[in-house]
Structures are given as C-alpha cells and as structure tokens.
Amino acid sequence: MTIRTLIRGGLVITASDELHADVLIEDGRVAALAAHGTAAAETWTADRTIDASGKYVIPGGVDAHTHMELPFGGTAASDTFETGTRAAAWGGTTTIVDFAVQTPGHALREGLDTWYDKADGKCAVDYAFHMILSDVNERTLKEMDHLVGEGVTSFKLFMAYPGVFYSDDGQILRAMQRASGNGGLIMMHAENGIAIDVLVEQALARGETDPRHHGEVRKVLLEAEATHRAIQLARVAGSPLYVVHVSAEEAVAELAAARDKGLPVFGETCPQYLFLSTDNLEEPDFQGAKYVCSTPLRPREHQAALWRGLRTNDLQVVSTDHCPFCFRGQKELGRGDFSKIPNGLPGVENRMDLLHQAVLDGHISRRRWIEIACATPARMFGLYPQKGTIAPGSDADIVLYDPHAEQVISAETHHMNVDYSAYEGKRITGRVDTVLSRGELVIDRREFTGRAGHGAFIPRSTCQYL
C-alpha cells in the first residue's frame, strides 16, 4: 500500500537552494515541492504529515568512504553492515559506499561477491560498493569492465601498505589506462608506502614505539610526493583521479595545481583531519592509539588549509573513512609497537553533525555543508539525482535536522559498535531529529524505527563530473 507523506513547514536546504517549502513524498520518492503556505501546497493531502517547523529539511547524507567488516592487521573493523548502517542513519547518512576487497591471487568477482554476501539483508540504509584492486594483472583489468557494467564504477588503489594492498607505479598506470577507457574512476590512497616502511623500521629500532610515532613516520612530504606522482600517472593514462583522505596542506597544494591546469583531479578529506590533530596521537597511557589512522592526523596548522580547500573547491567531498576498531582488544594489539595498531577511526555517525558545527563556526555555508556531504559525493560516484538532493523524482532520503539542539558527543550515547569516540566530550549544536530512507521512517523523533534489510544495493553510473 502506498503511503503519501507530507513534510510541512521546514527550511529545505540543498546544495543550490534554501526555501521554506513543503515536501510531498509518494512511492518512496519526492513527488513535489511547493513554497510553504502557497495555494499549491495547501491542496496536498497525505496519509502522514510530519511537522518540520523550526527544522532544516535536508537530503540524507552520502558517505562515500566506509569500511564495514574490513579485515585489517589481524583483526576486523568492529562495525558490521547492520550496526554501521544503523549508526549512519542516526547520524543523518542514508547512503554509504563501502569498499569490497580483492584478495591477491583471487578475482575481483570473488571479492565483490564476498561483500555482497556481507551486506545483503543487513543494511538499514542504502549502500553501494567501490572495488579495491590489490592484484592488477591482465585478468583483473578485464574484470574492471564487467564491474563498471553492473554499477561498481570506481576502483581504489594503494601506494601504501606493501605486502597487503600496495600497487607499484606500473600496476597503477595500467589500471588508470583501463579506467580511462571504461569510464571508471580511480581512487588513490596516496602515501609513499615503500619509504614509510623504512622510516617505521628505523623508528622501532630506536625504541620509538608509542602511537605518536605513527604520525611522525608517515610524513607530510610522503603524502604530497605520492599525490604528485598519482596525478602525473593519471595524466599519462588520460584518467580521472580521486585522492582519498587528504590530510596535509602540501597534498592540497598538489591537487590545486592540477585543477588549475584543468585536470580531472578531485580530493576528499575527512572530519578527523578537520577537527583532530597530532595532539590526540600524543595522549598518554597509549590513549593515542585510538587516533591511529592513515593518512595520519597532522599538526593543527594543517586544518586551515583543508577548510580553505573545501571553500575553494580544491577539495570537493567530506567522507569519514569509517573503519572502527575497539580500543580494548584491537587497538591494544599495538602496545609496544605502533606499527601493529589497526589503522582506522569511527565516524560514520558524527560527520553531518560535525559539519553543521563547521557552519556555525564560520568555516562553510549551509549550502556548502549539503554540497560536500550529500550532493557532490552523489555526483562524484554516479548516484545523483537519485541521491544527494531533494527534487521531484529523487529518492525520499530526507533528514529533519534540529539546528538548535545541543549535544555532547560520547561513546556512552553513540550507536557505532566501538568502545570509544574520537570526539569524546565535544559539545556541538545541531542534531538529527527524523530520518526517512526512500520514504520509510528510519529515525522517528530520535527513536530508531528502521530495520536490517531495508537498505538496498544501488548500482551506480559513472562519475558525473567527467
């Protein structure tokens, strides 16, 4: 049975507009918008009316970088697709794009099918996949074409983690050449992993084993060098490039220089680089291990360059790189050797709230908030306008957001399956009130009403910026 839902009286904010409007939803999609109080809006009838007075009505967030159930460092990310997508919904994110992993020596198809199995019937919100290439050869290059055909249109390679995910420059070039022909988007973890491993070995030999040394060996210059190299390889291949989790001013400068030349080069940063710093890695009693991720947290002075990059569009997307490991029993694997600390932070539930706080702090505008968290990730990864906006025909993925509610971020109250918060005790203003996914209430006035299995796999078209 079709339920018509009417959202009345809120301020609708998209990447392009702000309008006091009513939104009519039918068959899981936005049927119409009309200015609040107009004759057109007053004639609408619905089975369910939601009062959005005093609230923002925004598109559901699109988090284009998550790692649910990712095996890493002898353990696995602590959020399942069920717990992770439920937490995403609590945070106002209604679509995630997770990473399926190819195991070296195995087919891409095998890795993708493993991730289909992990997610099927488990997700509270919609999901899609990128494909991690960890073994580039003639067979896997041909498989890339087939994956693009079934809606997995982006491929991640690593210049870091030798022996795990690492690809050399020749493999990267070949994958980029293939993507230039099939419409795929190459995503790059840009750090010089070969050099970093030398610095890790030398640091441990000197007895430098604490978490803070993780940040010290993964040097800013080695992120900038790898970013530069990735850009030049993409130029040779005639391929677009999307650099993930950009953390440093020098890497932003490489992206800006490439974009100034008109190259199809894009960059993403994450809340941890905007709000945290090496100060966190230096917390005593091994607490710094909670903040070990790669690229690593940087000194606080890099934050200004990242915010500036988001304002100037040299960085286009804020994703989370959500890859949680519990402090007890997982992060603790690296006591006495920082190189054994599982790399990753929890954050899928916090992104929309932290970016709203950035609006209040004057870093970005309200529309830019929606642009970098909803519309641009949807466009970048072939989901727009189905996702990322509120417009007739779009999926009714809609968040009612209370811009005045105050909250304190804490592991005591979050819904991610991890025993700490990276933002513990941070006071912010703004909170998700109600969330609809394809017209179905998932969060209803701060109560979870969703279910595992509501979330559907969404095949994606190719990047809409090319």
Layout of secondary structure:
Layout: E1 5-13, E2 18-26, E3 29-35, H1 39-42, E4 48-51, E5 56-59, E6 61-66, E7 71-72, E8 75-76, H2 81-90, E9 93-101, H3 108-119, E10 126-132, H4 138-149, E11 154-158, H5 169-182, E12 185-189, H6 193-205, H7 212-217, H8 220-237, E13 241-243, H9 249-260, E14 265-269, H10 271-275, H11 278-281, H12 302-312, E15 317-318, H13 351-360, H14 366-380, E16 398-408, E17 427-437, E18 440-443
Helix pairs in contact: 4-5, 5-8, 8-9
Describe this structure as you would to a colleague.
The chain is an alpha/beta fold and 466 residues long. It is built from 14 helices and 18 strands. The chain has helices at residues 39-42, 81-90, 108-119, 138-149, 169-182, 193-205, 212-217, 220-237, 249-260, 271-275, 278-281, 302-312, 351-360, 366-380; strands spanning 5-13, 18-26, 29-35, 48-51, 56-59, 61-66, 71-72, 75-76, 93-101, 126-132, 154-158, 185-189, 241-243, 265-269, 317-318, 398-408, 427-437, 440-443. Strands 1, 2, 3, 4, 5, 16, 17 and 18 form an 8-stranded mixed β-sheet that branches. A hairpin with a 2-residue loop joins strand 7 and strand 8 (75-76). The relative contact order is 0.18. The mean pLDDT is 97.
Brief write-up:
The protein is built from 14 helices and 18 strands. The protein has helices at residues 39-42, 81-90, 108-119, 138-149, 169-182, 193-205, 212-217, 220-237, 249-260, 271-275, 278-281, 302-312, 351-360, 366-380; strands at residues 5-13, 18-26, 29-35, 48-51, 56-59, 61-66, 71-72, 75-76, 93-101, 126-132, 154-158, 185-189, 241-243, 265-269, 317-318, 398-408, 427-437, 440-443. A hairpin with a 4-residue loop joins strand 1 and strand 2.
